């Protein structure tokens, strides 16, 4: 069994005045990160105040606005990220890489990823299909990757609902100081967005949303990347999430996305 990692999720100065978690607090916290969900959350209130002629340019209702954002976000994000790529790469790897951890990932999961030097294993788990990595910075922000794999059986495993179930199951291993708490996807306050890409010649599905802890006040953004590795017959989850209360999460999330979208899949693991 695994003990929850609580000390770095909740410091001694963390205080709450509520007797139970509120999903609205999670939603407000999430609006600090640049993401299609932020656009949706921000425009939802604005949309209600627009005149009919003004709102028609954005869609006839919130559902159409949601679809408009989902359709156009990938192209807009790609242009922004492309512009920032060189500077972003220099920032991410300013202190070098972690070759030992990169080798472990390659041997365990069969893909290569450039991992910055500050990342460490969050918990030791003797499981060939699971790894949780984290990086703490001086501002007490926590950037995380969870990696998991399982055999590909059918296309149903690539549906948003199946990915949600898989991620929520892995959330059992992420706890807080509240006994019995676990990390789950919160798609009640803000929708899940999903996109399909081809990365290093392989199918990849991207799912974005917000996470929260059951029975606690913690939450933040996540992006889950599902890779289909036909060589091994596995589907691989590379899940990125952030805990940084009160902070702007755009740059942190952009760094995690950059790392996740630049993995490669050799036919054999790297040999160093």
The whole-angstrom Rg is 19 Å
Structural class designation: alpha+beta
Strand content: 15-25%
Biggest β-sheet strands, sense, barrel: 8 strands, antiparallel
Structure description:
Strands 1, 2, 3, 4, 5, 6, 7 and 8 form an eight-stranded antiparallel beta sheet that branches. The protein has 272 residues and is of the alpha+beta class. Strand 7 and strand 8 form a beta hairpin. It is globular, with a radius of gyration of 19 Å. It has seven helices and eight strands, in the order H-H-H-H-H-E-E-E-H-E-E-E-E-E-H. Helix 2 runs antiparallel to helix 4. The N terminus and C terminus are likely disordered. It is 33% helix and 23% strand.
Keywords:
single chain, 272 residues, alpha+beta, 7 helices, 8 strands
Summarize the structure.
Helices cover 33% and strands 23% of the residues. With 272 residues, the chain is an alpha+beta fold.
Which helices and strands, and how do they pair?
Blueprint: H1 23-30, H2 36-49, H3 52-56, H4 62-92, H5 99-109, E1 120-121, E2 130-136, E3 142-151, H6 160-170, E4 183-185, E5 193-199, E6 202-213, E7 219-229, E8 234-243, H7 250-260
Antiparallel strand pairs: 1-2, 2-3, 3-8, 4-6, 5-6, 6-7, 7-8
């Amino acid at each position: 069994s695994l003990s929850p990692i609580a000390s770095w999720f909740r410091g001694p100065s963390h205080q709450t005045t509520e007797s139970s978690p509120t999903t609205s607090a999670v939603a407000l916290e999430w609006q600090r990160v640049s993401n299609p969900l932020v656009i949706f959350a921000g425009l939802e209130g604005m949309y209600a105040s627009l005149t009919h002629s003004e709102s028609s340019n954005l869609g006839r209702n919130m559902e159409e606005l949601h679809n408009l954002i989902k359709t156009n976000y990938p192209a807009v994000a790609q242009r922004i990220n492309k512009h920032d790529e060189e500077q972003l790469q220099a920032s991410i790897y300013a202190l070098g890489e972690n070759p030992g951890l990169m080798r472990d990932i390659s041997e365990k999961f069969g893909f290569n990823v450039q991992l910055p030097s500050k990342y460490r294993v969050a918990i030791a788990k003797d499981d060939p299909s699971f790894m949780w990595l984290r990086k703490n910075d001086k501002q007490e922000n926590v950037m995380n990757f969870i990696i998991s794999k399982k055999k590909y059986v059918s296309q149903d495993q690539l549906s948003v609902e199946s990915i949600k179930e898989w991620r929520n199951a892995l959330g059992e291993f992420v706890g807080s100081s509240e006994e019995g708490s676990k990390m789950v996807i919160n798609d009640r306050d803000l929708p899940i967005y999903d996109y399909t890409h081809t990365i290093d010649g392989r199918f990849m599905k991207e799912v974005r949303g917000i996470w929260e802890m059951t029975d606690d006040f913690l939450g933040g953004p996540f992006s889950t990347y599902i890779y289909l590795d036909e060589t091994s017959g596995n589907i691989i989850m590379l899940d990125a999430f952030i805990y940084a209360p009160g902070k702007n999460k755009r740059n942190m999330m952009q760094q995690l996305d950059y790392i996740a979208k630049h993995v490669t899949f050799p036919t054999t693991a790297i040999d160093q």
